[in-house]
Write a structure and sequence with these properties.
This protein is mostly beta strands and about 140 residues long. It has no helices and ten strands. Strands 1, 2, 3, 5, 8 and 10 form a six-stranded antiparallel β-sheet that branches. It has a four-stranded antiparallel β-sheet with strand order 4-9-6-7, with no helix packed on it.
Length: about 140
């Protein structure tokens, strides 16, 4: 019997419902979550949103790994990752090419919290960032 339908998420009842970068938190089962930013482009000191979601009903411990296309950066360009919860900045790491921000970055996100992660570069050229978040309920 063929498995038909299901729309953009694939056939109904088949496999993982994850459909790709969505800047949101995906529940993958067993109290575990994941998110993938896709390619985020930033330039001219403008912050670009990479992830934005409301955390689930239980607090989660999240680990964020991210990378930037460093070969395209100018020697004096700054790179940054900023995290806000409910609109308040809880972490803002900025550095130059010769240094690196702690990676992976670990953080506890309380339940029902508006979470936002952004990337930035001071370079005048478009620079590509990507990131992955994995989390587990506490």
């Amino acid at each position: 019997m063929a498995i038909l339908g299901g729309g953009p998420g694939g056939p109904v009842g088949a496999g993982n419902p994850f459909t790709g970068a969505a800047s949101t938190l995906e529940h993958i089962g067993g109290g575990k979550y994941a998110a993938w930013t896709g390619e985020i482009i930033s330039s001219n000191s403008n912050y670009s949103t990479a992830l934005e979601f409301t955390s689930p009903s239980a607090a989660i411990v999240a680990e964020i790994s991210w990378i930037v296309n460093r070969s395209a950066l100018g020697a004096a360009a700054d790179i940054a990752m900023r995290v806000t919860m409910n609109g308040a900045v809880v972490w803002d790491g900025i550095t130059q090419l010769g240094y690196w921000i702690e990676n992976p970055f670990k953080i506890i996100i309380p339940s029902y919290t508006e979470f936002k992660m952004e990337f930035m570069t001071s370079d005048t050229d478009d620079i590509i960032f990507t990131g992955v978040l994995v989390a587990e309920e506490v």
